[in-house]
Write a structure and sequence with these properties.
The chain has helices at 3-10, 19-29, 113-116, 138-143, 171-186, 202-205, 207-216, 255-267, 283-288, 315-330; strands at residues 35-38, 44-48, 57-63, 68-74, 80-85, 97-100, 106-112, 130-133, 151-154, 159-160, 165-168, 193-199, 220-228, 243-247, 273-276, 296-303, 311-314. The chain has an 8-stranded mixed β-sheet with strand order 1-2-12-3-13-16-14-15, with helices on both faces. It starts with a helix and ends in an 8-residue tail after the last helix. It folds into 2 domains: 3-66 and 169-330, 3-Layer(aba) Sandwich (Aminopeptidase); 68-154, Peptidase M42, domain 2 (Elongation Factor Tu (Ef-tu), domain 3, Beta Barrel), CATH 2.40.30. The protein is α+β, with helices and mostly antiparallel strands. Helix content is 28%, strand content 27%. It is globular and about 65 Å long.
Length: 338
């Protein structure tokens, strides 16, 4: 298992609190590009400058943040009530290990009154029915800095499953961050301007992508992200190649960019899957609506169990995404018409 990918996945970086991930990414990419800087929103932008006046100006965006929880209240006996940061299926939280990221971090788990007392859960619990149990009361938690507004990370170490597949938390979108880092290393000698952008707060509303697009002002952009599998319909399967977005719940991808990617895949025998979905969207949507409009699409890696701590991905798909995008970046188009 690649050490960098493991470290990226296991590092905590809930939306709005991406500092640790950003520091790790900056350390990796700063040797491969001409400059790195952090904008006012907290995005990390790594720039490979152009050596040609007519060069394309490209933006590849991968978001650093992950889903998580935040404390709403703490009862006298220490029951921590919370709300979510990002979209989380409530059932995926039951029994989940967590770390309260207070001044002195506190370990705990998500539970319900029924589960705590060993009773059957007869009705589907909602977020408001759950709480975090740390074994500490309110006074003890306060002494460690755990209070209203403290962020809570979902805990899970990366593990291997069948073949080249692995599971873990935050695959969305540390996989994209990893791909961007690998591309930065491969594109050291590129004649074109490539902006590797590591965005913040995608899970809350794709806020970092919007502000960074104004900073970069690209000719076109690709969000390097993940896509949820749809095995029941034999779509977006693990190990069958990265996905190229056609349409999601909020955007239609730029056809010119998609056609270019599909042509590269066909010529180089890189397996790909087309992604048409009614669920969710990515940084590409916000990018496409910025600066008077930016041609954009998404290259994704299929994930099982999206937005959980047991997301599953294939290294084969990741490596093929790197291959596909590296070929594109060697000779990127200047103009991408609709």
């Amino acid at each position: 298992m690649d050490k960098l990918l493991r470290t990226l996945i296991e590092t905590d970086g809930v939306s709005g609190y991406e500092q640790k991930v950003r520091a790790l990414v900056q350390k990796e990419v700063q040797r491969c590009v001409d400059k790195t800087f952090i904008d006012k929103m907290g995005n990390l932008i790594a720039v490979k400058k152009s050596r040609r006046k007519d060069a394309a100006k490209v933006m590849l965006a991968a978001h650093m943040d992950e889903i998580g929880l935040i404390i709403k209240s703490v009862s006298g006996d220490g029951r921590i009530k919370f709300t979510t940061i990002g979209g989380i299926e409530p059932l995926a939280l039951i029994g989940q290990r967590v770390s309260v990221l207070s001044r002195v971090p506190v370990s705990g788990m998500v539970t319900t009154s029924e589960m705590l007392d060993g009773n059957y859960i007869e009705t589907l619990p909602k977020i408001e029915d759950m709480f975090i149990d740390t074994g500490l009361d309110r006074k003890q938690l306060a002494s460690r800095g755990a209070e209203v507004g403290t962020v809570v990370e979902l805990k899970q170490n990366l593990g291997m499953v069948g073949g080249d597949m692995f599971y873990g938390k935050a695959l969305d979108d540390r996989i994209g961050c990893y791909i961007n880092i690998q591309l930065a290393k491969l594109m050291r000698k590129s004649a074109h301007e490539i902006n590797f952008v590591f965005t913040v707060q995608e899970e809350m509303g794709m806020y970092g992508a919007k502000t960074s697009t104004y900073e970069v002002n690209p000719d076109w952009a690709i969000a390097v992200d993940v896509s949820n599998t749809y095995e029941s319909r034999d779509m977006r399967l693990l190990g069958k190649g990265p996905t190229i977005l056609v349409k999601d719940a909020a955007m239609i991808a730029n056809k010119s960019l998609d056609d270019t990617l599909r042509g590269i895949a066909k010529k180089n025998r890189i397996p790909i899957q087309l992604d048409v979905s009614d669920l969710g969207t990515t940084d590409a949507m916000t990018i496409s609506l910025s600066k008077g409009g930016v041609p954009a699409t998404v290259v994704g890696v299929p994930i099982k169990n999206l937005h959980s701590t047991v997301g599953v991905a294939s290294m084969k798909d990741i490596n093929n995404a790197v291959k596909l995008l590296s070929i594109l970046l060697k000779n990127p188009p200047k103009v991408c018409l609709v």
